[in-house]
Amino acid sequence: MGKQPFSKPPTHEFLGPFLPTKEKSCWILLFVLAFEVNSIRGGDVKIDFSYHHYPDLSRVLNDTAASCHEISRVYSVGKSVEGRDLWVIEFSDNPGVHEPGEPEFRYVGNMHGNEAVGRELLVYLAQYLCSRYQAGDARIRQLIGQTRIHIMPSMNPDGFELAATLGPDSPRTSTSWGSYGRLNAGRIDLNRNFPDMLPVWLLQEKSQRRNHHVDIPEWYWDTQVAPETLSVILWSLSQPFVLAGSLHGGSVVVSYPFDSCGLRKVMRSYSEAPDDALFRKLAKVYVDGHRKMGKCGQVEPCNKRNFTCKGGMTNGAEWYCVSGGMQDFSYLVTNCLEMTFELSCDKYPDESELQTYWEDNKEALLSYMEAVHTGIKGFVRDGAGKGVPNATISVEGVDHDVATASDGDYWRLLLPGTHRVTASWEGFEQTRTCAVKDGSPATVCDFSFSATTTWFASKDDVTGAITEFTITPAQSGKHASSSFSLHSNSFLRYYQILVITLIVVWSS
């Protein structure tokens, strides 16, 4: 299928039937604007092994995208409490467009403001991808040609700027226990601010339990949701992300879901996800690519756990229970498998050490991105050959499904082996046997129904456009109520929440 042009959906005619009304005055925030990349061309991109304050971060991302304008763009998914943009730099052979059949990948860094290594490594990764693409590197050209990559160096730019006032010389920022600048400017821990979906999932009646795309509970919107968290939630729902990584500091280990202990009132306990074995295999991809992680004796222990002598990976809840973490949210509410990479004992090391951290992690960062091309992939089409959005892809023996994207394309990361896979949609069902070979690219496993789908709107009206989400500091303290439920009506089911409306109510 050909690439679709980038366009904005018409807001009033298109969304009108789905917008609720309120007696009291309210602001309706429609997140449907694409953030355009700086069009000024830059010179050759070289890695600058230094810390980047917010103005420097903005400049280097835009300069990098301008230098590689044919494969890159910069956009914002929203603003922090203090009004700083949450920048993302994208790499693709068709920037700004979801290409049918091409998986989407993301890295997020600096959720905790004083955990600065991941922030800088993602800046360096962007510079590296651009420079190696320009140099004709076959590996990087293949990766960018077959993958849509999104890199957010800092989810908490306000916290970083606060931590930077003390810098790497203070134990309050740089040690494994340092926390100055960890929280956002609203004093919220962003990795405890997502909805804790595991208890929600477990409390559902078994006969009615959905094992994927679990609805965010209404009570969550009555809690204090940080603007940074809300922006990432909406961003996560707007794109068919397949695989993701979140970069942290304070230890040297890969942590995989579940982070939450669910309904158990304990401090730590192994919390097994349906894809537990797959998560461990993906974690090993990063560990094996890292120069020191998981290699006993290569790194001084950050704490008593000494993960480098225990394979370099851990189940999140077995380490310690986290409620409201991002990786659990991604797994239970979207198609995306996400893990956390703890990159350094020293959260804010001296600038002279940054190049070493880059060299330690470079291959791991690349290998993990390439892992998005494993398992199975394909299309679900109707009798007329059109892609069927929001069809369910189920794998026998794995209690976690995924859904097709707006063009009927899907990706399902799986362990090597022979799998019985079923595609279902509105009463139609087809089952196939799909083989996954270790070390081989994803196996194509297509499905076709005899029925013809009914479209509620032209696909030209809804695109994979990245949305710009803007929440001001004043708004972030208000109670927000969600006008969307992931499966509340067929329109939202078909279009995977590509257009989302948030209602913010003010008392008159």
Characterize the structure shown.
This is Carboxypeptidase E-like. Its cofactor is Zn(2+). Helix 9 (276-289) links the parallel strand 7 and strand 8 (313-315). The protein is α/β, with parallel strands linked by helices. The N and C termini lie far apart (51 Å). The longest helix is centred in the first third of the chain and has 19 residues, at 116-134. Helices cover 26% and strands 21% of the residues. It has 2 domains: 11-374 and 463-505, Zn peptidases (Aminopeptidase, 3-Layer(aba) Sandwich); 377-461, Carboxypeptidase-like, regulatory domain (Immunoglobulin-like), CATH 2.60.40. Helix 2 runs parallel beside helix 3 (116-134). It is globular. The strands form 4 sheets. An 8-stranded mixed sheet has the order 2-3-5-4-6-9-7-8, with helices on both faces. Strands 10, 13, 16 and 17 form a 4-stranded mixed sheet that branches. It has helices spanning 11-15, 54-67, 116-134, 138-146, 157-164, 171-174, 197-202, 227-238, 276-289, 316-319, 326-333, 354-370, 473-476, 490-495; strands spanning 26-30, 72-79, 85-91, 104-109, 148-152, 241-248, 251-256, 313-315, 337-344, 376-381, 392-395, 398-403, 409-412, 417-425, 428-436, 443-444, 447-448, 480-482, 501-505. Residues 1-43 and 454-508 have low confidence and may be disordered. 52% of the residues are buried. The chain has 14 helices and 19 strands.
